[in-house]
Amino acid sequence: MAEASGDPEAVVDAAQRVLDFEPAHREALLQLASARIEQQQFVNATRHLMLANTVMPDDLGTLKRLVHAAMCAGDLTIALSAAHRWVALKPRDPEGLMMVIAIYSELGLNDATESSVRQLAVDAPITSRRPSSRQRMRVLVLCTTANISFRYSRESAKVHTEGGHNNLMTMFDSDNVELIRFCVESLEYKDDLVSSIPDVDVIYNAITDPNRCERALELASGLCDLLGRPVINPPSGVLDTTRERNVERLRHADSVLLPETVRLGSLNGDIGEVIRDAASEGGLTPPFIMRASGFQNGKHAHLIHEPGELRVRVSEPTEVYLLQYHDVSYVDPRAPGSRLYPKYRAFMVDGKLYPIHFRVAEDDWKVHMPQSAPTYRKFPWLYDVASDFLENPSGHFPDGVWSALERAMQQIPLDYFGVDFAVSTDPATAGKLVVFEANAAMRSFLLDSHECVPEHEAAKVVIRATHDLFCKRAGVSPWQFSIPRGKRSPAVEHGFVDSNAPRLVRHLLIRGKVQGVGFREWFWHALYRHGLKGWVRNLNDGRAEAVISGPEDAVTWFLDHFDSPEKARIHEISVSEWQGVPPDGVSIAEDVEMPATAGSNLRGAVV
Fold first, then answer.
1. Whether 379 contacts 354, CB under 8 Å
2. Catalytic annotation on 503?
3. Structure confidence at residue 607 (pLDDT)
4. Whole-model pTM?
């Protein structure tokens, strides 16, 4: 059966006509299922895929699609049955084994989950991703299956692990680097595995949590000693980077402050009194933070102001620790009535510090992307703050502070790790950098950011530096490679980045619903995504004004395909030639009453 059309409804009609004649036509069932998935009719898609699987029960591709449709439909039993058949057909496939684990975990079947995790370690201890082109380097990646979570993402149709690892290996050169993943827990089940590990140029220890993964790191350390190859992020170094050790290590670092930490161990039941006593004995003063170990993005973290009235109960044994809270919030006249809580992130690679991103939350001490995105939208001038940090970190902070942070981080015994920090506004410690966290578990957002925006470009710099680090340790010469792409941008898709076309500068007046709907934020991102320079601002009469500059092909594409955020409504765009000073960066300018006049009209009433 030929593909009927790109239109799901047309595909449904064509497939249904075939099925009316032959109800068990496998290809028609598969096309019908694909159309239903595109329409997000997952229950129907599951039914069609089950019928197709009955016709050809050993087809792995059909089974994988059935697992996805059933997961999205919420029918975990069908998904589990299909995943088990997947594993039966391909017993040592880690993808299938991880799928079984993720489904058991979602079903809350803890014993079955643990049993399947052991099976993963036994059946798939070594897996390899071979390069698609010339092999220039072979890397042994040490991983763990213990004390981490397996979660199925309906969006990506893949199983993701949470905790225990970072995501560095997803960003390496797949054309020229062979990655051999080794599950260290398998050493406890099989005695002869070490001899089956191929010779490698360098070892990367991808196990990052010194508390939850202590046993795995001990196994990894012994393996590294046996293999005798260069190691990046040695397991012994990770074990030595607990919060407590970092506090002790950097207690006297210049211009840097790590919050005092009190680890309470594994607790269960009512723990309010334990917390009060531990905070008092550890010298913590309110407010302080209570956190559960092993969670990211502020999950299970609480700011405690009144420990005397504290009532806390945990339903199962949980590793808990306390942190002294240091205020880093500030007020800004551009955000009247609000208190802003900043958080900077940088990566250390081979002893050098690289800026990576800036987050900020309004009236919330937990600073993560869900809190940061609406804050940027409300106060778009924060993008200029972020750009200043990424372009010139040493000049962004008081003199000498950035270099002091770099020197302090050089004392941490790791080759690649992240650090979150902000400037203290507490009177007693004002001006010092408060280091919230410094560990190997931090993840890069390279793949999640749009190409050409400052955060994406900063992440690329870190990946290139990491590539050079691996080459140096492996004893091979660095080479140019294509860094994995983020979210697609027209500047890359259409070659505007390397365009030699004549440059144009244009003045825009945009009329419609363009204020209070995130238009300036969208425009800022759009300029970067198109490889343009420019500025945008609000006018008092409700319009937006902008000046854009760049290669003729990029400017023309931008104007011909002008989009806007979902809540905005564009009624008219007036375009004129700009004869003033061309913009040399991207920014959101302050609001003004009247538009600038440095231009001659070229085009109006573009709707």
1. no
2. no
3. 37
4. 0.86
